[in-house]
Amino acid sequence: MKKRIIFIEFGAQEKFVNQIKYSVMTLKAFNDLDASEIVVYSEEPSNYKNMDVSVVSIKDKISEYSLNGQYHFRIKPCVLLDALTEHNCPILFLDTDTFCRKNLSKRIISISKENVLMNVFELTNPYPDFSMMNINTPSGINYSYDPKKTKMYNSGIIGVKPEHKIAIQDAIYLIDAMKKHGLKNHTAEQTALSEAFRIHNINISELKDEITHYTRGTGKDYMNDMIKNALQDLPSYSPYPEEKFIKFNWFLPRLHKHLRNFKKQCLK
User: Fold this and answer.
1) φ/ψ (deg, to 5) at 200
2) pLDDT < 50 regions, the chain
3) Domain limits for position 19
4) Is position 252 within any domain?
5) Number of structural domains, the chain?
6) Rounded distance between C-alpha atoms, residue 51 and residue 27, angstroms
7) Can you give the pLDDT at residue 160?
8) Model-level pTM?
């Protein structure tokens, strides 16, 4: 089955590059993927020259896609739209702070005209004090923010097909409309995507068992330190042995934080 698993990285921070490298290695531990099937959209493609992946430069598009730096999360649906147009096949987007735990074939096959994948459902009415009425989207659907219906799924994972391009175009339009109406929340992008799928009558299925998305700050700090150490042992970025996977639960990051704070105190 033709497919692409994509990542987006910008900002020239080593931790994001390392996160992708570890995520790719865990993907390859459970999935038979060649270099054409994993695509990294990066501001600095040279960061991935030793990896068996495809790399696309987005350096010249960062400003346009982020509205001149006003909202960087807008880059995600814009690149997703580019990927669907170029590859014309199912696309599974993964945030950099993810790692694979199971084979993904069945979940990717489940992406259809009527069904997309996102990470997890978060809440209904994410912005209780926000109002936006009668927005005419590019598809012709009239949209209003509805406290009873508006939903937000985490967009750290997104699985879509070319048939969903019009919904993603609407999502980008809704992001811009939300910003024009004064919404400052950084989660506007994932709400706009969730709502665009909803108004197009597309079901959203959660993808959380096969992929771990370590979203919280403490979890990221722990994983960043563990990944940096792991990559020193595997410079070739080959498939990561499952028995050597970094142990992750919500206790270990907290313990890691306390130990790191304790060390800081001892050095004072």
Assistant:
1) -95, 10
2) none
3) 4-213
4) no
5) 1
6) 13
7) 98
8) 0.93
